[in-house]
Design a protein that fits this description.
This is Pro-sigmaK processing inhibitor BofA. By secondary structure, the chain is mainly α. 77% of the residues lie in helices and 0% in strands. It contains four helices and no strands.
């Protein structure tokens, strides 16, 4: 089973590298990804330290930042809603 999973990962990585280098995307996508990560962390930071909701604290970890990165500011609202319903 482990060999199959490693094979799928290797094939996926090769196909991803093929797409990135064959399309000549350049480095502009790295700037956008970096900007999205910074904005996601900033959104979580504003929620944590704004003082509007003192009972809600969203930790800055890879899971919360990736959720906010993928979903944007609605992802921060989702995390805040989950935190408030779980308290």
């Amino acid at each position: 089973m482990r060999i199959i999973l490693i094979g799928v990962l290797a094939v996926s990585l090769l196909l991803l590298l093929y797409v990135v280098f064959s399309r000549k995307l350049g480095l502009a996508w790295l700037t956008r990804v970096g900007l999205h990560i910074v904005l996601a962390a900033l959104g979580i930071y504003i929620v944590n330290f704004s003082g509007l909701l003192t009972e809600a604290y969203i930790p800055l970890n890879p899971i919360t930042i990736s959720t906010a990165f993928v979903l944007g500011l609605p992802g921060v609202a989702l995390l805040l809603g989950l935190k408030l319903t779980m308290i």
